[in-house]
Amino acid sequence: MKFITWSLITLFFSLNTYSQITFKWFGVTGFMLSDEKTTIVFDPAITRIGPLDYLPFRTVKTDEAEVDYWMNRCGVKSASATFVNHAHTDHVIDAPYVVKKFGGKLYGSSSVVNVGLGHGLPANRVQQIKPGYYWTFGDFKIQPFLTPHPPHFLDTLLLDGHINKPLPTPTAASNYLVGDTFSFLITHPKGRILFQSVAEVEQKDTLKNIKADVVLLSIANRSSTEHLIEKRINPSQAKTVIPLHHDNFLFKMRRDDELDYLWGVKASEFTEALEKNSKAKIYWPKYCESKLIL
Predict the structure, then answer these.
(1) How many CB atoms neighbour CB 102 within 10 A?
(2) Among 34, 3, 9, 7, residue whose Cα is nearest residue 21
(3) Which of 9, 75, 103, 151 lies at a C-alpha separation of 20 to 30 Å from 37?
(4) What is the reported pTM?
(5) Is 169 helix (H, G, I), strand (E, B) or coil?
(6) Strands (E), 17-130
């Protein structure tokens, strides 16, 4: 009995020697996680691409001044890795620049890798990811899971397909094809974080049995809030849910702490449904606001 008690005390103190995990949001599904020793970046896409940018003969590229402003405001000094969930502009466009400036490698699908190569990253600074593999950075462990991008409307997925060769910059916005789409399980001695990058749960659910303390959940273009709660949030047993992809990614991020919501995102409906049907608490992030999540 004394041995068991001492073991529990030792475990308690060993877990509490780890720094707390801070979350900061970059807009859309972009964010950083840091435990003071290690910083991981996901989906940095601060450069906003509007509808007119998809007109013929127009090209797009990273707005370096805008990225520098927000990375500085969010306190990013360095990054051990940058992960991207798919290769549309609103997830990947600034990732190569972030890797060049803050270090580490770019991790993503073959399409994401080709964005990195075309934007000037050398081969040793990109890494294709696949299900069944994981990567460790300090005390963080990152595992990818295939979660296909749902259609934007009816059965149509815009910019479907794969980027099969290095994609130069600047280039047409329409060249950023989706590629494979991943969600991520992020484990740390302080707890488990599930980043679901899509707003649907398919019948073949690769995340079905994952438990997490925190769920970071894309809610753009969701078909049913109740379905997300029933199939993802409640089974995960999450204590905290952080909605992502609810700001209007067609406009520049506002610097006055106000938020332009994506049309039809129904933030209040999501909050009400979660409060009614789940024990999880909701946290609506603001740009670069520091939040201790574990």
Answers:
(1) 18
(2) 34
(3) 9
(4) 0.94
(5) coil
(6) 22-27, 30-34, 39-42, 81-83, 105-108, 126-128
Distances (CA, A) of 189 to 32, 52, 186: 17, 46, 10
pLDDT tens for 264-280 read 999 999 999 999 999 99
Q: If residue 161 lies in a helix (H) or strand (E), which one and from where to where?
A: none
Measure the CA–CA gap between 47 and 65, rounded to whole angstroms. 9
Residue 147, token pair as written in the block = 């979660």
Using pLDDT thresholds of 50, 70 and 90, give the confidence band for residue 41. very high
Domains of the chain: 20-292 (3.60.15.10)
Q: From the CA atom positions of the chain, what is the Rg in Å?
A: 19
Per-residue burial over 110-137, b = 16 or more CB atoms within 10 Å of its CB, e = otherwise: bbbbbbbbbbebeeebbbebeeeeebeb
Q: What are phi and psi of 91, to 5 degrees?
A: -130, -30
Residue located via tokens 């001044």: 65
Point out which residues pair with 292 in neighbouring strands.
22
For range 229-255, the mean pLDDT? 97
User: Closest by alpha carbon to 109, among 134, 91, 133, 127?
Assistant: 127
Structure tokens at 196: 């679901």
- What is the pLDDT at residue 44? 98
pLDDT bucket at 7, cuts 50 / 70 / 90: low
| Tens digit of each residue's pLDDT (9 = 90 or more) over 105-157 | 999 999 999 999 999 999 999 999 999 999 999 999 999 999 999 999 888 99
Beta strand 126-128 with 105-108 is parallel
Q: Per this entry, what is the length of the chain?
A: 294
**Token pair for 135:** 């990567």
